Amino acid sequence: MRNRWEEIVKDTRRLILDIVIAVLAFGAVIALLFAISSYREVYADSYSVDSYYYYMEEGNYPRLVELYYGERDRQEPKDGEKKEFYAVARYYEAASYYKMYQENGDTERAKEQAEKMEAARQEMGTLSGEAENICRQLEIQAP
Fold first, then answer.
1. Which residues of 96-131 are buried (b: 16+ CB within 10 A; e: fewer)?
2. What pLDDT is attached to residue 113?
């Protein structure tokens, strides 16, 4: 009788341990999935509108250009809520080239960049005031 009882206790312990191991393994898989999901959110290459706004408010226009090209390379949609920020980035880039070409006496290329600046300014919408800030920062006169 004692052997039978010991076998029942042993089998019950083994069953309980198997259940605990299965639950722990399932929990580990779920935790791993959450960790991967969190990693993707934190290190995503796509930036929020708030990021663009922050860099623009700080006058960090070169960073806007970096973000714009990063999202362009990933073929992010160019419309929607970031459209005006993309226009600010394009304006800054064109204004930078405009300044460089003006300083080097290359009026033809400077004129091309001035046209790009005007096209970007028209797409800026409510952010069109940033064109003046960019020109002030680059110490140029808007063409």
1. bbbbebbeeeeeeebeebbebbeebbebbeebbebb
2. 95
